[in-house]
Description:
The structure is a homodimer. The first copy, chain A, contains twelve helices and five strands. By secondary structure, chain A is an alpha/beta fold. In chain A, helix 2 runs parallel beside helix 11 (about 250-265). Chain A is globular. The mean pLDDT of chain A is about 95. Chains A and B meet through helix 3, strand 2, helix 8 and helix 12 of A and helix 3, strand 2, helix 8 and helix 12 of B.
Amino acid sequence: MSAKSQAKWTEDALRALRVDRGFRLADIDPESTPGYSGDKADGTLDLAAGLDQLAEYQERLYAASRGGVAKDSVLLVLQAMDSAGKGGIIRHVVGGVDPQGIQLAAFKAPTEEELAHDFLWRVQKRVPGPGLIGVFDRSHYEDVLIGRVRRLADPQEIERRYGAIVDFERRMAESGTRIIKVMLHISPEEQGARLMERLERPDKHWKYNPGDVDERAKWPAYMEAYQVALSRTSTDDAPWYVVPANRKWYARLAVQALLLETLESIDPQWPVADFDVEAEKARLRATL
Amino acid sequence: MSAKSQAKWTEDALRALRVDRGFRLADIDPESTPGYSGDKADGTLDLAAGLDQLAEYQERLYAASRGGVAKDSVLLVLQAMDSAGKGGIIRHVVGGVDPQGIQLAAFKAPTEEELAHDFLWRVQKRVPGPGLIGVFDRSHYEDVLIGRVRRLADPQEIERRYGAIVDFERRMAESGTRIIKVMLHISPEEQGARLMERLERPDKHWKYNPGDVDERAKWPAYMEAYQVALSRTSTDDAPWYVVPANRKWYARLAVQALLLETLESIDPQWPVADFDVEAEKARLRATL
């Protein structure tokens, strides 16, 4: 059953959210709920229903790879401004799936060793193997986002990276990885409110960093960097999806739908036994 | 709130299940439910209630480590005969926690490169960092279990390993890791029934391996290897717990209780802000 077949979806999330020719980030309303006609109460119910579907698809994806034939994997790339809700997606969408089938990689500021290598070096090592759902919490896109805004590399190198990324992702797709790249899109007003909440609650102080306000001051430059990066790297092999994220319930539901629709298109099958089932039953029965 | 404070626990799981002087594996009934007076229906309710507690403890453990002061981490080591339920523990107990706080390591048959190193080489690399809950799905104990039963190393080397393990785990404990070593204990009859179920259901065939029946034939040798390994390596730094596992609901509840009681004894605290909260509020307000 696809996300689309759920009552309140009016369109595939893969279609409603996709970054395509003529894309303008500025046209997307962070309050909107593209493709979904329900409200928060509907969304909460649909998210819960989707958890079981996702768990079953994940198990089939994993099982299919154990047969040694299927090479399919999924990679979810999460990019966003601070407080846009990446953590909530990982907790509430990814967290509903068997941890044994998930490969989570969080990319923080690069180490000295990582900086000494090409920007893709640390990322290539974390590509999910067959049967796994990989999740990148930030990614190689930092190197054309903060990299561009903060001028951490010269403009020529930033230019080179867009092409390197497209090549890298095409190779990944060719070897069986379905890539779903998500930008969680919040408004600066919503971010302001969320950061203020972190400051107001002592149990949230650990999530706050004074540097967050400095980055926030560069909001327009970040939006421009996202506009360029998404336009230049949204390909058929590895499309970008912009998920309006002012409403947390919608963002979670939408990312779940992107995963469900992708897994549905893979349609992983239980592998056929590579042993003689009846002979094994007899062998086992002899030990009972 | 500790697991003990839940209505149906009559004793701490950490006490009821611990391997201590005079331990005899043969005396433990895989059908029993030590320390717990409830039935399956109670256990299911208590497991659900414990999920929220565990999720909160995990978040506090993680947050405390971000402050840079607390070095605490937890390592859950899972060992068991095939089909005893390790996967179910990971799905239903560990899976209830934010995946960002979990570091899962599955140790399969060692690679050529791993075999060329000391048996602890591959394990040391997967020790959880501060704030994390590590889970070992199988572990360095394979090297004194199947290692002993299948004579994969000579007896002198196996002897050496018990001491090396105790030293390794003591160093881990000294650097802040609480180690919980669990043997899930099923009866050979229960294993027979579970393997037969795998053979009877095509969607479970991928979990079955003809080698499982061969290992099963060596049950007494495995039990002896467990008896020796648990007796020799259950220390105050890193105690063993034998969890009767014929009843899946009990095994899951008991492992959750071991985790909850351990986290309760750490009692991780939200870190105090290392910035001036009022000054940051003013800075943020200026951007709203």
